[in-house]
DNA sequence: CATGAATGAGGGTTCATTCAT
DNA sequence: CATGAATGAACCCTCATTCAT
């Protein structure tokens, strides 16, 4: 795919993260991408129009990680743990970007595209849950689609607390993951 | 009392919500507050420095609503429902502001203050849970402090999905609330 | 005389010297004077209108020093040395202010007052030279009035070089003074 | 060559002279230079940072005039007269700028550069004096370097008196020049 | 396609000045 | 007389966007 466009997106991710939306200049992005000021406008119409492309890259990244790191041959318990790990890691790297996307774009034309971009993520997680239900791990009365969204929101918000607000240590992050897992299991699993 | 400062904060909330951070001008804020441009700078050093004050106001608002609308004489089930209602309503009104606070201020000096501002919220919810535990509604092995944070994150993220991303209808909002409640109960309650 | 007015003038001298005209704010001056912002305008109509008052203070200061430090009982040689000392010292303290006065006020209404303010200085120096001529120290063909102005200009510019541009050490200042004296003597004295 | 920078400097000279530092707006300068507001900031960081560039231009101008108008084939007496003429003329045109340079920049970072800018001027005058000494016009005991600085200061301050303070007529200017020359000759020449 | 110098509208911020207390 | 909070016009400077090369 187009090399320059990629460079812009990745430079934008870095700069947005470092400086925040408000203080990010197109000139910072092009400097990071190693291209000329004008070249930016051959690929994007404005600073904000990079956002959906960033979101796409991040969801792709998430899916890759899930497919790579969640081992289907293991017990569901273990898989769930791996899912939490991935979400925490991706959130660590990108959550501030997600926040920006809808903070910067609230009441803009780009928010529409959001759901479409997130779709593969929801689908993958849906399939993951279905498979577990088939194995009779999950509650019979659990409806998958809504639960998927709740679970994703739950894990993400826990990760946010760790990485954004409280800026916790590695050990505390591990503890937080265990708490989320515990909480989720009670919410999702069959009672023994 | 500090009448002008109050006016600025409330005008800022309105304008940020209407236009987003990026497009909000200080001149809009002062127009809304009915004061002169220069007066703004007697109270705040910049546009962004209003953010923590806004956050404080919103947490206060949340606490007021909780105290007003969560009826301690009712069953815990009902109270939990009321809590979810309040969080959904406040999120509906202010979540875009919350998003802005950390989107606009990622990597800034203000993020530090965040936890301190949220503290009363966590404390209230902690007390609420303790009371329920005393009534033997909640699981014995539930540790309250971490659960409080998870629950708040869970409800907020559900509310976000309803009001920010998916922009769902009233009926769908009601359904989402029930799903969250269901999810929470399984996660928190004693098994029968 | 009016205490507050005095305070303003002296604070203004300090601040102008420290920050330069451009960056001096009325608020700095009143802070230095220990009075309220509005009080300034009871005594002066604007920032620039303090200038003539400052100039007056400085010429007064100069005259005081001359009368105090130039000893009429000594040889003219010695007296000339003392004159140079005074000019150097006053220049050290105030020359940047003098510069400002006409830099800031070039093409302004205040420049007119300048000559009048400087007048006592020229007169004193004129009397000083006349007395020396009577003692047959100075050249017979020396016309006093123009020489006085040249001498003042010469000493001042030498002092400027020392204190403004080259920022020389104490030793170098002493040397410069000797050079000026030598130069002046050749220009003014009778040939032996 | 660096056409825009040149244009800015020359426009700045004009505007500073017309309005004084305080009242000069960047927008005036760019209007005079026929460029856009933003272009100014590609070449200079602020209004004040043009000052050293202006000083450089003026010293260049001075040197050009000296080389053009001081005729080496004439007697030293005549040459000295021509030097005074040049200094008076340049001072007439630019002294208010010089005043501004250090008035506006007192206590600033730019004052340091001053000596370096003046250097060619001092050097030229030094060479001029050496040549005269070789011809046995000047006193044997005259040390050239310090005298050069004194002479330049003397002529400049005389010119200032004529053009800045006293705003004298053409005839008076001529008379002042003769006085300076007379003064200088006594200070510099061998006794007959 | 790529460049980067030039643009200029626009907004943040300052600060001299006022005036009710 | 003295105050200092409030004012708002004025100005600096930024930075997204363009366009000739």
Structural summary, described in words:
The structure is a homotetramer of 192-residue chains. Chain A is mainly alpha-helical and 192 residues long. The first copy, chain A, folds into two domains: 1-44, Arc Repressor Mutant, subunit A (Orthogonal Bundle), CATH 1.10.10; 48-188, Orthogonal Bundle (Tetracycline Repressor, domain 2). The first copy, chain A, has eight helices and no strands. In chain A, helix 4 (51-69) packs antiparallel against helix 5 (76-105) and helix 5 crosses helix 8 (170-188). The longest helix of chain A has 30 residues, at 76-105. Chain A is elongated, with a radius of gyration of 19 Å. Chain A starts with a helix and ends with a helix. At the C-D interface, helix 1, helix 5, helix 6, helix 7 and helix 8 of C face helix 1, helix 5, helix 6, helix 7 and helix 8 of D. Chain A binds a DNA duplex (21 and 21 nucleotides) through residues 4, 25-27, 35-42, 46-47. Chains A, B, C, D: It comes from Oceanobacillus profundus. Chains A, B, C, D: One of its GO terms (molecular function) is DNA binding. Chains A, B, C, D: Residues 25-44 bind DNA. Chains A, B, C, D: This is TetR/AcrR family transcriptional regulator. Chains A, B, C, D: Residues 2-62 form the HTH tetR-type domain.
């Amino acid at each position: 795919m187009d090399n320059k466009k990629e460079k812009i997106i990745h430079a934008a991710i870095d700069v947005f993260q470092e400086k925040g939306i408000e203080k990010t200049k197109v000139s910072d992005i092009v400097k990071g991408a190693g291209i000329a000021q004008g070249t930016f406008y051959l690929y994007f119409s404005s600073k904000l129009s990079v956002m959906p492309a960033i979101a796409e890259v991040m969801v792709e990244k998430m899916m890759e990680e899930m497919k790579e790191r969640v081992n289907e041959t293991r017990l569901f318990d273990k898989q769930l743990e791996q899912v939490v790990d991935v979400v925490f890691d991706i959130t660590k790297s990108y959550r501030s970007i997600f926040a920006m996307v809808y903070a910067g774009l609230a009441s803009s034309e780009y928010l529409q595209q959001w759901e479409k971009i997130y779709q593969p993520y929801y689908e993958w997680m849906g399939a993951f849950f279905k498979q577990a239900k088939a194995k009779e791990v999950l509650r019979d009365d659990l409806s998958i689609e809504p639960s998927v969204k709740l679970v994703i929101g739950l894990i993400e918000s826990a990760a946010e607390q760790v990485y954004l607000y409280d800026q916790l240590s590695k050990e505390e992050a591990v503890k937080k993951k265990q708490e989320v897992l515990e909480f989720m299991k009670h919410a999702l699993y069959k009672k023994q």
